[in-house]
Write a structure and sequence with these properties.
Blueprint: H1 13-16, E1 21-29, E2 32-37, E3 41-46, E4 60-66, E5 69-75, H2 76-79, E6 92-98, E7 101-107, E8 109-117, E9 121-122, E10 136-141, E11 146-150, H3 152-155, H4 158-163
Parallel strand pairs: 2-11, 5-7
Antiparallel strand pairs: 1-2, 1-8, 3-6, 4-5, 6-7, 9-10, 10-11
Length: about 170
């Protein structure tokens, strides 16, 4: 798989031709299914103790200790301004590398790893202007469902990481 697709802005078919594929980690937040490029995912972990951080941005759940390294955890429900939901046995933290920082993203559940053809990915419709729409890179059309592909660059800008003291 080409390193060129490591950056989320390379999801559209015009960039690479119709025959190429991208491999995604898919997860749920509420009823919606999202995907991120597997190349930015370090690992997926079960919930661990999350320590609150005073004066952190609203979307930061806190920090975790992952094998001796302290990582911030972004609550994607909070980031998308969705109603809170109690954490449960399906809740997961997806550990990703972004802007040379390792960050955890709290999601309701992780679905699967899948490959889709880039030709099935479309830019989000202009009509999509709801909460969190600025974080959508594209929409993947699968046989029986749509998959929202997240733009991680927009989701967690460097300024947000600077607020965390990174």
């Amino acid at each position: 798989m080409s390193q060129a697709i490591a950056h989320e802005n390379h999801l559209h078919p015009a960039d690479h031709g119709d025959s190429s594929e991208i491999q995604l980690v898919t997860f749920h937040i509420g009823e919606e299914e999202f995907g991120v490029n597997i190349l930015v995912v370090n690992e997926i972990i079960r919930l661990v103790q999350i320590t609150l951080v005073p004066n952190a941005p609203y979307f930061i759940e806190g920090v975790i200790n992952l094998r001796g390294k302290v990582l911030p955890v972004v609550g994607l429900r909070k980031r998308f301004r969705m109603p809170e939901k109690p954490l449960d046995a399906n809740s997961r933290i997806i550990v990703m590398e972004l802007h040379q920082n390792v960050v955890g993203f709290l999601v309701d559940s992780v679905s699967q790893v899948l490959r889709i053809k880039k030709s099935t990915v479309e830019k989000p419709p202009a009509v999509v202007d709801g909460v969190g729409s600025e974080y959508i890179e594209g929409v993947g059309k699968l046989d029986d469902r749509l998959l929202i592909l997240l733009d991680l660059e927009a989701l967690l800008a460097e300024t947000d990481l600077n607020e965390l003291g990174k």
